[in-house]
Design goal:
It is a single chain. This protein is mostly beta strands. The protein has one helix at 20-23, and strands spanning 5-6, 14-18, 28-34, 44-45, 50-56, 58-63, 66-71, 75-78, 84-88, 94-100, 108-109. The chain has a six-stranded antiparallel sheet. It has a three-stranded antiparallel sheet with strand order 7-6-9, with no helix packed on it. It is globular and about 40 Å long.
Length: 111
């Protein structure tokens, strides 16, 4: 049994992650939460698909040329190689879970 890294002592809104390689699995899972309206990661890309799950609040996702608004309970796919980002639309907290379809987290920031 393995437990992922706890980011509570880290700066910023990232709160936890576990790479699939630590569990012998094919996916990496991260959590993110912020109360700041407009906050979110900058434009980036992965060489694998990423699934976003909105747990609480509302987010605006930019995935390639598409802009999608998603609320609690909705799921958005970021295809491999397609630049994407998101931000908290408010009101209130945005809490999300991300599934990276890779045993390790690989990200290239574009901004």
């Amino acid at each position: 049994l393995s437990v992922g890294r706890d980011h509570r002592k880290d700066r910023g809104p990232w709160r936890g992650s576990v790479e699939g390689v630590a569990l012998g699995g094919p996916t990496t899972v991260l959590t993110y939460g912020t109360d700041e309206i407009g906050a979110g990661p900058r434009l980036h890309v992965h060489p694998y698909d990423e699934t976003f799950i909105v747990i609480e609040g509302n987010a605006r996702f930019v995935v390639g040329d598409a802009t999608l608004d998603a609320g609690a309970g909705q799921v958005v796919l970021g295809p491999a190689g397609v630049p994407h980002r998101f931000e908290n639309l408010g009101p209130g907290r945005l809490q999300t879970v991300y599934i990276h379809h890779s045993p390790t987290w690989i990200q290239t920031d574009l901004e």
